[in-house]
Amino acid sequence: MDLPKLPVVSGKDLSKLLVGLGYEKVRQRGSHVRFMKATAIGSHNITIPMHAEISKGTLNDVLSSVSLWNGVPREKLLAMLRK
Prior knowledge:
- This protein has three helices and three strands.
- It is of the alpha+beta class.
- It has a single domain, classed as Metal Transport, Frataxin, Chain A (2-Layer Sandwich).
């Protein structure tokens, strides 16, 4: 099973995706921003770096976590990021 190639994404783009999914910015420490959302399975907290380019591993982890907690397919999240 081939995973689709991950796009180059900035922290700003990733934060827009999270806010669009209903996450709220709760705090920031340096370049890292913490987001929170109450979901059907509990409260999901996630921290993302506000860098010009998010590393592929970090982006992969964030997308996997957001997909799991929100019940949104990872491919749909990738499509939303590419817009």
